[in-house]
Amino acid sequence: RNAKKTLDDARGAIARLVEVQSDDVIFTSGATESNALAILGHVRALQKGGTKNIHILYLPSAHASVVENAKALSTEGIAIDPLPIQKYRVDTEALAKMLRNGTALVSMDAVCGETGVVWNTREVSEVLRTHNGKSFFSLARGTAATREEKAFPVVLHVDASQAPLTEKMTRAHFGAGMLTFDASKVGAVRGVGALIAHRTIPLMPFYGGGGQE
Prior knowledge:
By secondary structure, this protein is α/β, with parallel strands linked by helices. 34% of the residues lie in helices and 16% in strands.
């Protein structure tokens, strides 16, 4: 019971920091697992639901756990494309032209861990919002959805593991449906991370079990 309370307290603290609900917080072993879960978990959940012709975009300068997982999906028949970059920004006009009906995910980092570039995630988010036509955050996990609502939106995943010391750590600040965090990047213990995933976003776990993290 004490252990459960400690875990619940930590989950609640992170949820308040990021301004989300507690059940949006999924604990992981670090940023690598969080990024893999966001990319592989989301695509495979869509596949399990019968979705075909899935397309994802990724930032080519992002951490290897973003780039390599995107490339791994390409060997499984998933269409992937690098995000267009123009003067240290994602070229939003070019991005809008690359989006298509099968585009399911855009994955990028918030701050480059090697160069310090702060990426324009909110501008990317606005392009995706326009493409989606309406916000998918109005749906609650487990509720019935119409055929139109089940036409999956493009989800923005942001690896924010390098951002806590320079950016406001709310999901709204990044405009993201999924956020990656890593405790070791802010002086906390190694081997602890989190994926913030809105409850409407389908994710498939890597391992079957009782539902625990």
